[in-house]
Hints:
Oligomer: heterodimer
CATH class of the largest domain in chain B: Alpha Beta
Strand content of chain B: 15-25%
Amino acid sequence: MKIRAILFLAVLIPVYSFGQNIIIKQDVLADQEESNYGPNKKYYKSTFTGLGLLFGKPDATGSAINGYKSFYYESGSRKKRQMGSFFAIGRDLSLNFRSFSIKQNDSKTFGGIAQHKAERLFNINGNLLIYTRYNFKPKRGNQLGKYLDLAGYVEYAMITRHVVTDKLDEALGGNTIKSYYRGLPYLNKWNYGVTARLGFRHMLLFCQYRFSDMFNRSPQFPYQELPRFCAGICFDVPDEFSRDR
Amino acid sequence: MTRLLSSLLLLLLPFISVAQEKFWVFFTDKNGVDFDPYTFFDQKAIERRLLHGIDLCDESDFPVNTDYVAAVGELCDSLSYSSRWFNAVAVYGNEGQMELIRQLPFVQSVEAMDWYISNVTERRRIDLSDFNTGQVALVKGQVSRMQADKFTAAKIDGKGIRICVIDAGFAGFTTCEALRHTYNRDYVKDTYDFTRRDKSVYHGHSHGTMVVSCIAGKVDSIQLGLAPYAEFLLARTEKAFSDKLREEENWLAAVEWADKNGAQIINSSLGYTSSRYFRSQMNGKAGLISRAATIAAHKGILVVSSAGNEGDGAWKIVASPGDADSILTVGGINPWTGLHATWSSYGPSTDHRLKPNVSAFGHAIVGHGQGYAEQVGTSFASPLVAGFAACVFQMHPDWKNMKVLSEIESSSDLFPYYDYAHGYGVPQAGYFTDSVSTDTIPTFTIVEKEGKFSVQIDSSHYSLAEPIQGTYHRGMPGESKYEMESDWKQHHIPDQELSSSSSYVYTQVPDYVFYHIENRDGYVKQYFVISVHQTEVLEFLRSDFTKGEKLRIWYKGFMKTIEF
């Protein structure tokens, strides 16, 4: 019994011999350090995602698109280097997805004159955008505020597809056939253009204009250029820590 | 395509409106302005000035020169509020117009304003009869933590003390059961909605109603606040859940209005952070409303402000105007740990002044138009202390505002110890109602041996720190309690793991050891709270301290300082 009691106590001793628990510990000087990272500080970065529509007057009726079915999606990371309360520069690295829905009409040239149930050209691009930012309100606390971005971009088409959807006659079964064409020789891999953005804190409205031609001037594929504009909305996803500090 | 462009244009509209901004135009002087304080001020405002020995009026009280305002009005889109104290007028216009205004000979400067969106979150609504054991403990605790029974026994209830409450709206005030006595007995002396420019304030958000209930709320024998018979001036300055706010301008207008109408106390439960400022600017001087709060203090008003709810966020420190000099900034206590609530903003101000000054419960039962609710935030700690201050004013009508402020600090349960989480602790009514002995009983001794300091709690005062119980709610049926201390070693107790269902609330400081280290410049550089598990509670090496530093240790009302 004695041995048992001693063993029991020996087990208990470590439990009660621990030091004091620190319930609150605050280092005031560390609290008061001002970081140089934040929305209105020297450095800032965020991730973003955006959606837009492709539109604009085509170079010819042969490359008209269905506006509301042609869209743009982007996602990437954004860095900003503040040069003063009014001016900043930065870069976006992103992947974007452009999908042109080709209008099926008699003057259509893209993909040949044959008309289909639906026809789509899409590509996935790696995009580098360099921007300059002009803030409307220099005195805005540690916030992004309201701003105008003027930017130039260059992008590389990593994946391209021409998708044609046809519906067979009822006599042939009435099935829908979707054909994918890859390795499209008529597309330029590199494209470039300019972007203007109006931002309010973490929300931006953007409008892009593509200077480069999507199609190379091949006599074999005399396609007329697709619309060059893209506009939409983009959201920054702020880093929670940097949001205020 | 037209439809697409129209949609885009609609999306762009908010940005197009950016062209019209709001600015403060500050004037150089008030030449040629007539002013009669007897017709301008309420009788209570005149009495307050006489008590504080300040002139009935000075130039800051004079109205803004109307000729100057008219001249500015010619050059901008429209005019807004004029500030007597800052000799300024708020205007709408664009940068080009402001450039012209800057050229006027009587214009000192033009500053752009900004705005931010304020959201006030509510917790679940309850009825008095639905109170569970924990909520009953909470509603009693929020006043008994400040020894409300001592004021009640001394028949001190804030009667005749005029408090201005500046808030986001007072919806439900007229039907609030807890404030029925205030409304029915005409204790509301005046109201003004600075967002709409009219006298109707019983709309908008119910936050203001809940705040007033923490000052004057009472139903049957249950008190929600300490000053049920105080008088009120209600000022609505915010539009919660709305779009663009010009709250600083409205707040400033409300403070000047409170001064004119004889307020002795102003309670403000709002705060500005990163929408306008950097953390380094929380020095009481950068924020317009912080400066206005200090001016109000110089005019004899006790300004009570919430510290802010940024403690566990990136901002972390007090928000403007809680950083202002000469005001009482109130932090939040977690009722179930008896200590600083993790979300309550920390001090000090960036120029090293003590903030928050004192603390009160940051979880409270409040009244509103449909009954009662359990609310969280320093928004509710601040009015609890404002009610306390009203009682002190009632007991000592000859005391000036700064005397009341310093006595409230002295009454607090950690005083003379302080830290930047709790300030001086929670004010205690007994300090004012009882004959207090100035002798404190030593509860520990400090033994120095071979360059080591050892803090030893006297065996007669030793008490093992109570294990703090948390409650899991995470999708579990029912509740399961666990001992927090077994889970953490160096952290605050996360508030989200505690709630009123943990029925025990602390009605006094828990039996922990508090200590801080003050550097040679007189600023606290580190502070700690530790739980007690043995009599030899702390050990320090002399070599860990530099010359000129001070170590202050507090346990059960006794404080000792070691100077190095």
